[in-house]
Design a protein that fits this description.
By secondary structure, the protein is of the alpha/beta class. It has helices at residues 5-16, 21-27, 153-158, 177-187, 204-216, 234-252, 265-278, 288-300, 331-339, 348-352, 375-381, 384-395, 406-422, 432-443, 455-469, 471-478, 484-501, 516-535, 546-563, 583-595; strands at 30-37, 40-44, 53-56, 62-68, 73-78, 89-96, 98-101, 109-110, 127-130, 168-171, 193-200, 223-228, 257-263, 304-305, 314-322, 342-346, 365-366. Strands 8, 10, 11, 12, 13, 14, 15, 16 and 17 form a nine-stranded mixed beta sheet that branches. Strands 1-2-5-4-3-6 form a six-stranded antiparallel β-barrel. The chain binds adenosine-5'-diphosphate and magnesium ion.
Amino acid sequence: MQIKPDEITNILKSRIEGLDEDGAGDLSEVGTVLSVADGIARVHGLENCMSLELLEFPHDVTGLALNLESDNVGAVLFGDWDSVDEGDTVKRSGRLLEVPVGEELLGRIIDPLGNPLDGKGELGTTQTRPAEGPAPGVVQRQPVEEPMLTGLKAIDSMVPIGRGQRELIIGDRQTGKSAIAVDAIINNRDKDLRCVYVAIGLRMATVASVAKTLEEHGALENTIIVAAPANEAAPIKYMAPYAGCAMGEFFRDRGEHALCIYDDLTKHAYAYRQMSLLLRRPPGREAFPGDVFYLHSRLLERASKLNDELGGGSLTALPIIETQAGDLAAYIPTNVISITDGQIFLDQDLFLGGTRPAIDVGMSVSRVGGSAQSTPMKKTAGTLRLDLSQYRELQAFAQFGSDLDADTQATLNRGERLVEVLKQGEQKTLTTRDQVAIIYAGTSGWLDRISTDRIHEFQDFLIDRLNSGQSGLMDRIGDSEWDDSIESELGEAVGEAIDDFGPDYDAEGNPLEEGESERAHGGGDDDEDDDSSKSGSRDEDDEDDSDEEDSKSAKSKKEDDEDDSDDEDSAKDGKSKNKNKNKKNKKDKEEAGASA
Ligand SMILES: Nc1ncnc2c1ncn2[C@@H]1O[C@H](COP(=O)(O)OP(=O)(O)O)[C@@H](O)[C@H]1O
Ligand SMILES: [Mg+2]
């Protein structure tokens, strides 16, 4: 004869009916282990158990109730679950899963349950917080408005991230995803932003090297590292991002700012799948993707910018997803793309081709960060996306070389330089003002006079020079000031820097011979000053007779905008034209404009 536990309970229940209420209450607080395997226990008799409640098993094993079924509770076990046996008693704790939080955690490496992993002794925290909790509602939030700067030119200029935003970093393995996250932490080392780096399913050696990098840059003391390495049990990996998020929320709710990086959620989803199968949840396609959506949406919804009554704190989330061969259409990527406020897509071909960070501009977007971008950056980087997409369109024609018309050639030249400008090494973050200076040099056309392979050298030269010689100007840009006079002053300074650095091309775009750049320097300098003082506009031509022509050509270019779609520069503001490029080019356009 088979004995069914629920039948026995029913019999027992009817027997003890009539016991006083306290006694009956107590009975439902204690249960018995029905079965235990693979770190999962089925417990009978915990009638009032809550979802995600902590359960106390013998031998200091803790369980987390995940499956509430009609006659038993499925729980995942943390700790030495081998020692738990069938028939052991299990007690409800009445508490949801909680993790330690507090400033004491900064600078530490801990596991998701709050045990130190770095051998630096006790954490010394006094507070805890439920690992999972409801996300703030609409009324409790306000729009994102402060920037969360990564220090990376390509991101801060084109996919700006705001505090409180959720921005996905997505790409194949080894495309520099983690590097971006680490750079973001390093760039904020001396700012009022606390960072939580959650490592899920990485090798412990990788975690240690991240910690070392952060320490070398003085960023570790501002960072909590939550590690659930690859060798950990699935439940620990499952818990990790929620625990990290709770640690970030602690700062958010104090009116401070926090950044949570989840590296990476693909492995989190795999851990969850493993757990679900062990819990005997339906494995089919109909159940699992939906589950994973809920898994990640309830995590990422907790990123927020709170309203002023609640202190105005923020929690920014940078989830990372690893794709297989760039496949964005798999269900984990599509889920997280739909949950976040934008994505930074890293392309393996770009990465291998040396464009690093390997950001695919066309596929990357930030839907809310624009309002958090500083004015100088917004103004200088405004045309960047367009320039780059035009460049990409024409790139295939580059092989035709000199057969190309001047316009196409100009677009290609510009694009090549902008791509070069946006390249940036690891752990070489730049302040916004430095970024503005070099991006301005690129988008306004000054860099067209420098050959591509010298652009990085020039960048360092320019930044050094501006910060020492023009610190007043740079301070104003750093303070987010921007107007015509700042723009022309910056243009002038960049022009002088180019002349001193020694341009490779003259103002018409013709290559200069060795030694000729000295001459270009002398001539260019004087005219530069004359022109700028006359008109206050930054990129006046080096030629004296150019003023009139420029304004005319700007106008005619604007006309072109309407009907001439193959004018590469067309969608740009006529003012930000590269006057240095070539006169021939402009005249062509003028004629086109006149005849139109
Ligand atoms: N901007 C960069 N410049 C040069 N090397 C980089 C850059 N970003 C990443 N790398 C290198 O590329 C490799 C992969 O980067 P990583 O961030 O670990 O990729 P992922 O997290 O996508 O697997 C690492 O060796 C890293 O040092
Ligand atoms: Mg990585």
